[in-house]
């Protein structure tokens, strides 16, 4: 008799993990976070409840890890799978920020992300623990990328040295998040490009460049 090879537990575990990710994301999108349960995820994934508890402590842990995995898959599909990912530094801060925000727009329009992301974001507003975990695991790594890019711009003299990058990034990240969450307007490349322009150049009228060798005139003189 030909001896059959022993089942590969690693492959079986990976299949189960993928099934659990898919089930968790689908359920939270369909019924919302409060009605999503470990039992429901297990039933939809075709695994035992104890399989989930062996790997995760709560449904929040499952959902957050599933979302992180989804983000990693999207990065791989877009050819951005290098670790750790950084915002490119081409020397043009505005162009670099616009490019990464356009990728964010694409992700926010992707139904795979939009439905579970909205469910998690909405629940995070009333569930303090989930909110903190979402910020720490989902938002903070992305925000640090902006911090690093803005600090690079400071070293290059493109941003004032006294500017706090953690506050500065809110000028273009927070309005985008608010518009997306509250449906207050369309999410588009044009919108995020404008956010970057306003953030970097401000709202006051720009002083026209004075040609070299030309004396500046007093603004209140004749």
TrEMBL record:
The keyword Iron-sulfur is assigned to this record: no
Listed SUPFAM superfamilies: Homeodomain-like, Tetracyclin repressor-like, C-terminal domain
Membrane-spanning parts: none
Gene3D superfamilies hit by this protein: Homeodomain-like, Tetracycline Repressor, domain 2
Keywords: DNA-binding, Transcription, Transcription regulation
Residues of the DNA-binding region: 37-56
Pfam families the record matches: TetR_C_11, TetR_N
Residues in HTH tetR-type domain copies: 14-74
PANTHER family: HTH-TYPE TRANSCRIPTIONAL REGULATOR RUTR (PTHR30055), TETR-FAMILY TRANSCRIPTIONAL REGULATOR (PTHR30055:SF148)
Entry protein name: TetR/AcrR family transcriptional regulator
Organism: Streptomyces spinosisporus
